[in-house]
Each structure stands twice: as structure tokens, then as C-alpha cells.
């Protein structure tokens, strides 16, 4: 009797539990299905520091930071195998062939291109890096670009509590900001303000042709600047720093530098570094762009020691493909102390950051009255394909 009662009680309890579970399942809302994040390739950090820098260590640290943000990255070994299959060695930009190979063999939909512009391991630990995300479409397109340029003493805070006392801490701050910016852009693409919160530095002199405001002239190719300074790679950095303001303007489509570089190499332009005005005119018919922007870097100097200020001088021109005439020319000169009013507020600490503000001033003056282009939308997520893609997903 006791055994029978016990069995009945157990059966009743199980029945009530099952009913509660089923009732809860009927009332529960289905879990939201989120789209898979795009599979991304991380290129090695390109060193334009003008001197030695630990590129491998920087690349490894950047990869770790991106993975902490939940960004799915193709393993390095899969990327190297894909590029080696076509003997592609340059990873400072994305050309059509590299985009096709990486899309077909790894399934990647985007490529992250990091470029180191400044690495000074002495106090106050100066660091500058630009990162951009380029699609692996048949015609590679820049979908996101952001940059960091600063020192360990940029935000000292109360009693110096915000001073970063090592190069690793400055590096990590830069990587964390850029990784968070990229992750946010993939979730909800929004235009990035170039140069952070810094204001634009308008050119001291400029000329603009009336047809520059024509909305039909919508594609721009940025060529390496001629470098008239002692700072190695200053022309490459200047060209890179113009990409951000041009993209952020939302009024033109900017060609990926790798596509431009591919044409330069094919026709052997720029072998001596930078593109002169005559060569730029010849390139107008070769590049699929309405406008070509380039210029000359006359001064590019970072601060020496802990109290100096950077200085930059640029000459910029834009050529029009339709008329083969000069559409824009300007001259800009600035130092990091120009906007300082009291207690160092407004000081610019690196030549890269100063160049960005000058580029923003040029672009604002040049394209300020043009209409916005339609939004290109978020980077699509594509499933991995091919044998190399399967291998990439299997590697831990």
C-alpha cells in the first residue's frame, strides 16, 4: 500500500513537471536568429614608421584584440597558403587578384589592412596606426577606415593618473579603440569622423575649379605623394591620411589603394617614389576614377624629446579626367602648437594626427558643397567555400 501510494505520488509529480515545462515552452518566445559575422582576413602590420618596428609582435597583439571583440578571423596559415598559391607577397593594400584569391580559397568577405605610421618606444611613447576594412569583391571597396595617433601623455588626468608608462599600454589602447570601432561598424555601419575629435586645419591657399562640385564626378583615386622630406615613407602616409576625410565626406567613392597600386606597377609609374603632375595626367586614362588626388610633402617631422611639436607642410592637387585640367590645388602648413591656448589644450602630438587634420581641412574646403552618395550598406557575411576554406575552419 505504501509502495503503491509512493508510485502514484511520483507519477503525479512527474506529470506536473512535464506540464509546467510544456506550458513554459508554449509561452516562450523563439530565440532571435542573428546573421553570422563576416569572415575576415588580417594582413600583417605594414611598417611605414621610417625605422625598425616589431611588426610580428604588433600583428599578433592586434589579432588577439580583434578576437576579443568577437571578430572571426581566418587563420594566418590559411591566408599565407592562399597568397602563396599565386605568389602574392605585398600585404600593404588589396588588389583585385588578392581579393579574388582570398575570397575563393578562404571564404573571407573582408580584409583588414593595418598600417603603422609611428612607433617610438621612448617616452612619451608615440604610436600611430591606420586600419581599413576592404571587401573581397571583384572590385575591392573600402567599407571602414579609422586611425589612432597619440602618445602616453595625451590624457594625463588628475595628478597624472592617465599617463601610460609603457609602449605596450599605448599600443593596447590604440588596438582596443580600433577593434571596438571596427566591431561597431560591422554591427551598424556609420560614417567615422576623421581625426577623432580634432578640428580641421584649413589650407592657407587654395584654388578650386567650378566643375569640382559636379556630382557626376564621383570616384577619386589617391596617389602616393612626392616625398621632399628626409622622413622615409612620408608620401605614403600623406596619401593614406587623405583616405579617411574623403570617405567620411560621403560625397565621393574612394578607390582602394591596392587597385591604384596595381595600375601603377603595370605601367611602371612611381618607381622613384610618389607621382609627379605629368605622370598623374598620363594615369587619368588608366585609372577608373573621375578625379585623381596627389601632391607633395615638403615637411613631415615628429616632435623630438618630450616637449617639441610636430610640423607638416603639404601641397595638394586634384586632376579631372574629363577635362584633363586642374580641379583643385592648395598649400597647407601647420605645427602641433598652432591650436594651443592654455595648459597644452589643443596640442597635436604626432605628425600623422596633424596631417589628418590638414587633410580634413582640404577635403572640407574642396567637397563641402557636394551632395551625399547613397549608402553602400553593411559588409555581407558569406559562408566559407573551397578546400582552403574548410582547412581554415578546422585549424584551432
From TrEMBL:
Region listing for Disordered, in residue ranges: 369-396
Gene3D superfamilies: ABC-type transport auxiliary lipoprotein component
Keywords for this protein: Lipoprotein
Domain of life from the UniProt record: Bacteria
Protein name stated in the entry: Lipoprotein
Organism: Anaeromyxobacter paludicola
Lineage: Bacteria, Pseudomonadati, Myxococcota, Myxococcia, Myxococcales
Amino acid at each position: 500500500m505504501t509502495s503503491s501510494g509512493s508510485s502514484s505520488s511520483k507519477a503525479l509529480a512527474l506529470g506536473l513537471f512535464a506540464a509546467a515545462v510544456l506550458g513554459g515552452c508554449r509561452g516562450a518566445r523563439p530565440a532571435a536568429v542573428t546573421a553570422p559575422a563576416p569572415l575576415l582576413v588580417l594582413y600583417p602590420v605594414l611598417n611605414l614608421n621610417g625605422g625598425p618596428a616589431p611588426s610580428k609582435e604588433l600583428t599578433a597583439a592586434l589579432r588577439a584584440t580583434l578576437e576579443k571583440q568577437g571578430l572571426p578571423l581566418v587563420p594566418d596559415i590559411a591566408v599565407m597558403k592562399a597568397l602563396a598559391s599565386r605568389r602574392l607577397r605585398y600585404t600593404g593594400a588589396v588588389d583585385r587578384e588578392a581579393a579574388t584569391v582570398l575570397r575563393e580559397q578562404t571564404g573571407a568577405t573582408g580584409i583588414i589592412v593595418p598600417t603603422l605610421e609611428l612607433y617610438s618606444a621612448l617616452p612619451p611613447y608615440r604610436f600611430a596606426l591606420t586600419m581599413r576594412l576592404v571587401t573581397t569583391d571583384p572590385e575591392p571597396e573600402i567599407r571602414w577606415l579609422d586611425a589612432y595617433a597619440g602618445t602616453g601623455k595625451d590624457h594625463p588626468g588628475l595628478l597624472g593618473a592617465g599617463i601610460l608608462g609603457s609602449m605596450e599600454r599605448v599600443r593596447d589602447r590604440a588596438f582596443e579603440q580600433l577593434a571596438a570601432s571596427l566591431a561597431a561598424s560591422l554591427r551598424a555601419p556609420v560614417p567615422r569622423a576623421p581625426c577623432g575629435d580634432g578640428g580641421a586645419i584649413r589650407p592657407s591657399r587654395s584654388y578650386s575649379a567650378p566643375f569640382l562640385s559636379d556630382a557626376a564626378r564621383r570616384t577619386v583615386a589617391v596617389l602616393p605623394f612626392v616625398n621632399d622630406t628626409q622622413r622615409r615613407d612620408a608620401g605614403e602616409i600623406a596619401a593614406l591620411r587623405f583616405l579617411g576625410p574623403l570617405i567620411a565626406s560621403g560625397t565621393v567613392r574612394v578607390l582602394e589603394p591596392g587597385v591604384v597600386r596595381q595600375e601603377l606597377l603595370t605601367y611602371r609609374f612611381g618607381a622613384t617614389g610618389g607621382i609627379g603632375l605629368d605622370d598623374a595626367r598620363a594615369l587619368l586614362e588608366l585609372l577608373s576614377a573621375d578625379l585623381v588626388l596627389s601632391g607633395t610633402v615638403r615637411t613631415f617631422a615628429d616632435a623630438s624629446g618630450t616637449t617639441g611639436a610636430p610640423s607638416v607642410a603639404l601641397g595638394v592637387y586634384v586632376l579631372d579626367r574629363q577635362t584633363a585640367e586642374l580641379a583643385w590645388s592648395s598649400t597647407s602648413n601647420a605645427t602641433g602648437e598652432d591650436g594651443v591656448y592654455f595648459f597644452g589644450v589643443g596640442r597635436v602630438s604626432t605628425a600623422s594626427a596633424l596631417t589628418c587634420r590638414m587633410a580634413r581641412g582640404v577635403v572640407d574646403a574642396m567637397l563641402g558643397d557636394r551632395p551625399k552618395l547613397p549608402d553602400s550598406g553593411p559588409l555581407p557575411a558569406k559562408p566559407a567555400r573551397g578546400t582552403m576554406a574548410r582547412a581554415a575552419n578546422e585549424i584551432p
